[in-house]
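Run log, item B.
One chain of 124 residues. Sequence copied directly from the ordering sheet:
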Amino acid sequence: QVQLVESGGGLVQAGGSLRLSCAASGRTFSENAMGWFRQAPGQEREFVATVSWTGRSTYYADSVKGRFTISRDNAKNTVYLQMNSLKPEDTAVYYCAASYQSVSSPRRNDYNYWGQGTQVTVSS
């Protein structure tokens, strides 16, 4: 059974940092693109960042570019999201996702496995 389990969320003040982790089990994703999405209350799930299977290609939403960094450790079957200079508008449930594809993608429909999400709350 494939599982993606996110961790690292919490409450932080504006300007602070958090590091999210997503551990995969049930199969290896070392040849698959991985991504992070987020969903705020009353809003649709939106793209945050994606990384190719090698880790060399990354792509970010404009709203997080320069503040967030996605990375992966294929030996640990884990993907990370380092979030710096957090803003109240970053408050959301953050979801990890894995794709059958090896090329990174910002499209939600390109992802086949999803975690349960971790809450990130940024206070002003």
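Observations after the first pass:
- The two ends are 40 Å apart (CA to CA).
- DSSP finds no helices and eleven strands in the chain.
Flagged for discussion on Thursday.
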